[in-house]
Design goal:
It is an enzyme of class 3 (hydrolase). This protein is of the alpha+beta class. The protein is built from 2 helices and 5 strands.
């Protein structure tokens, strides 16, 4: 298993990014969470196989209709063995 933290910047708040990402994550089978941050970015941690992670990262780079992704910064994180995927409140 692999886990990554992603910070997405651009027009990614108020466009359904977090809730669409939850659907993508569940469909892909990754675990983790997503939340808005006070600086206008979206932060997420996703855990799964490398292939699953790549699939979600590809979606995150595009986002849902109506969003504008300027950048997605990905860093490795320690796997936690988490299950499920949640939308969290603003950090």
């Amino acid at each position: 298993m692999k886990r990554v933290r992603v910070i997405v910047s651009g027009g990614v708040q108020g466009v359904g990014y977090r809730y669409t990402m939850r659907m993508i994550a569940i469909d892909t089978g990754v675990a983790g969470w997503v939340r808005n941050r006070g600086d206008g970015t979206v932060e997420a941690e996703i855990e799964g196989t490398p292939g699953q992670i790549d699939e979600v990262l590809a979606w995150m780079a595009e986002g849902p209709p109506g969003s504008r992704v300027d950048a997605a910064t990905v860093t490795d994180a320690a796997p936690t063995g988490a299950t499920g995927f949640e939308v969290r409140g603003t950090a």
